[in-house]
Amino acid sequence: MFLVATLTAGAMSAPVRVRNLSPAGALVETPALPAVGSAVVLRRGALEASGNVAWTGAGRAGLSFTTPVMVSAWLPTKESARQAQVDRIAFGVKHAAGASGAMPAVAEPVFMSPDAALADLTRLRAELDHLGELLAQDAALVANHPEIQLFDSAVQRIAKIVDALRARA
After folding, report:
1. Which of 17, 96, 150, 157 is the most exposed place for a label (fewest CB within 10 A)?
2. Are strands 60-65 and 12-22 parallel, antiparallel or unpaired?
């Protein structure tokens, strides 16, 4: 799991990567962690969860929420209008769409060997993971575009495909 959120403890506020989320707590990553026992608020868009820091170590912290959260409410939705707009813009830039923004026809698929596909997917996974990490470092971007967590979802799906291909080899 990879969600981007903001962790507030007193006057400190920092973007965090949520690596695990349950109704009772979360595992977050950030360079600046509050002390164990600190009261915190984890925010993502309009959602927030109050709790305490249960443990810290190696840039990670375990949070214990004071009231259970509905995990599904914190997950990204497939119908994000902003994400659809970002997708259209990125597609247009990548494929040099005209001013109309019309999407060109999809080319016929290129077939490759399983080894080449595995190598390509492995590189793609690393590139997306790196890009997601870079984007998550920008606090303003994280606050305004929580959908960047989709990079981690894509990386996880690619990892499953890579593992399945390796198991068949």
Report:
1. 96
2. unpaired
